[in-house]
Amino acid sequence: MIDSGLADRVGRRVTLRPVDDENWRAVADVAPRDEQRSWVPALAARYLLLTLRSPVWTSLAVYADDTVVGHLMWGVDDDESRWIGGMVIDGAEQGHGVGRAAVRTLAEWLAAQGHPVRLSYHPENLAAAALYRSLGFQPTGAMEDDEVVAELSPS
């Protein structure tokens, strides 16, 4: 479990846990809001399949207290940079600060490994851009497919 002690705005402790036999179905069923489907899949199950088929990515279940509320994944690139990807917070759980706490928790954990931490987002996803910027991620000028690459500024 990755636990930085952060809570969402409702007061629930946000932790990141391995996807396992007990929680994988709940993680697979996580669905974003309909208007977000231009940027993320309809269900987190797609990301779970990706992590099963790719040695690069590792899936994590996002918990608020003892309830699965999302999916987040991380990976290591050829240059040893750490990447955050595949974030889906269930539509009913959004707006409570769960995504912020989850990204901050994972970013801090990855940054402690001593390598750059990067992520990417679609340029039209203004909410994601604002969230990542507020957590210290700055666009690098590079693009990954059709997404803006951002890197965590050193603290």
Layout of helices and strands, plus pairs?
Elements lengths: L13 E5 L5 H5 L16 H9 L3 E8 L2 E10 L5 E8 L8 H14 L5 E5 L4 H9 L2 E8 L2 E6 L3
Parallel strand pairs: 4-5
Antiparallel strand pairs: 1-2, 2-3, 3-4, 5-7, 6-7
Question: How would you explain this protein's 3D organization?
Answer:
The protein is α+β, with helices and mostly antiparallel strands and 155 residues long. The chain is built from four helices and seven strands; from the N terminus they run E-H-H-E-E-E-H-E-H-E-E. It has helices spanning 24-28, 45-53, 98-111, 126-134; strands at 14-18, 57-64, 67-76, 82-89, 117-121, 137-144, 147-152. It has a seven-stranded mixed beta sheet. Strand 6 and strand 7 (147-152) form a beta hairpin. The mean pLDDT is 93.
Features of the shown structure:
155 residues; alpha+beta; 7-stranded mixed β-sheet; 4 helices; 24% helix; globular
Radius of gyration: 14 Å
Oligomer classification: single chain
The end-to-end span amounts to 24 Å
Order of helices and strands: EHHEEEHEHEE
Question: Strand fraction band?
Answer: 25-35%
Q: What does the main sheet amount to?
A: 7 strands, mixed
Mean pLDDT, as a whole number? 93
| Largest sheet: spatial strand order | 1-2-3-4-5-7-6
Number of helical elements: 4
Broad shape: globular
Class from secondary-structure proportions:
alpha+beta
Helix percentage range: 10-25%
Secondary structure tally: strands: 7
Uncertain runs are none
